[in-house]
Amino acid sequence: MIDAHVHFWEYDKIKDSWITDEMKLLQSDFLAYHLQPVLKENNINGVVAIQADQSEKETLFLLGLARENAIIKGIVGWIDLQNENLENELFYYSKYNIIKGFRHLVQDEPHDFLQNKRFQNGIKALQVFGFTYDILIYENQLKQAVEFVNKFPDQKFIMDHCAKPSIKNNRIKEWRSLINEMAKNENVYCKLSGLITEAKWNCWKEKDFYPYLDVVFESFGTDRLLFGSDWPVMLVSGTYNKWKKLLENYMINFSIAEKQKVFEENAIKFYNLNSQTP
Q: How far apart are CA 21 and CA 28, in angstroms?
């Protein structure tokens, strides 16, 4: 099995100021050796490490971790997609097979950020080098995101955390409609990750997620959904084991082939994990 969405960091209160006291348990180091026992317990044999900081130091940090930890099969780093010298930077990173793509924290940007022409030019450059792009947004940015991906039919996109639906408020109608629109783009995949932090922390039941899972399974199908944990962020609302078990229970009547796609094969296909030399 592959976990398509994990983070690693050496905690720094300035760099990681997004980790508020409300998430105090995350104000610590979270590295590969911390995760290894959990992965072993859950029969996970590979992860994709996703950037958590908006700096190229983060990309180099993840590269260093990958050299030392074979469990890391791919990296989604950060790069300034509005940089005038972007193509030179991408050429440099293209030498590292383990770097599969990049991500920007659009959820923290102004509402119209995805309409930024310089940013869109950066996405065009990613396409040239074959890099993927992870879309990190809140549900209220979904409309702009749909318009955004429509401009790039040949770029490989993946939507993190199902675009963060407001599960704690039982809001689903508009999110469902826009997810259906997003899924019409066959170049867009979706991660089954990060949802327990969108519910009431540590007060949720498995059935709370089923209406939302129904939507993404009906929209994307089992060919374009990937299992991800969002470790360690997800720890503020539950355990790794509980999240994985929730998805396994939801998929209990799915075929073995469908389960293999969601829990392994789609991650290998989307991120090209068969090519993983650091």
A: 12
